Amino acid sequence: MITRERFPVPRLVVCDQHGSQVGSELNNAESHEPNLQEKWGVMIARFLLAKLNPSATYNNANEMAAGSDVIFTDDVSLQVFFEHLQRLAVQS
């Protein structure tokens, strides 16, 4: 692998498009070198930590469905963005 010849070693993420969490090359390399993840900084698996709905606002508890959590983000909804643009256009 090219990453073994470079210094400092870049972080390598192996992604398999066919649904496996681990790429076939990494499987072969892991069988020869069990500490490959620590040695080369290879991420073996990817985990989905959160899934956000872009059409919903997550910063107001009154608008959320029962049983769902409030998620604090720096993003604003598209409606809030357009309202802000309209206010800026009227001011100018």
Automatic annotation (TrEMBL):
Gene3D superfamilies: Severin. One of its GO terms (molecular function) is GTPase activator activity. InterPro entries: ADF-H/Gelsolin-like_dom_sf, Gelsolin-like_dom_sf, Sec23. Keywords: Cytoplasm, Cytoplasmic vesicle, Endoplasmic reticulum, ER-Golgi transport, Membrane, Metal-binding, Protein transport, Transport, Zinc. It is found in: Cytoplasmic vesicle, COPII-coated vesicle membrane; Endoplasmic reticulum membrane. One of its GO terms (cellular component) is endoplasmic reticulum membrane. Its main location: membrane. It is a peripheral membrane protein. GO terms for biological process: COPII-coated vesicle cargo loading; protein transport. Component of the coat protein complex II (COPII) which promotes the formation of transport vesicles from the endoplasmic reticulum (ER). The coat has two main functions, the physical deformation of the endoplasmic reticulum membrane into vesicles and the selection of cargo molecules. PANTHER family: PROTEIN TRANSPORT PROTEIN SEC23. Belongs to the SEC23/SEC24 family. SEC23 subfamily. This is Protein transport protein SEC23. It comes from Gossypium lobatum.
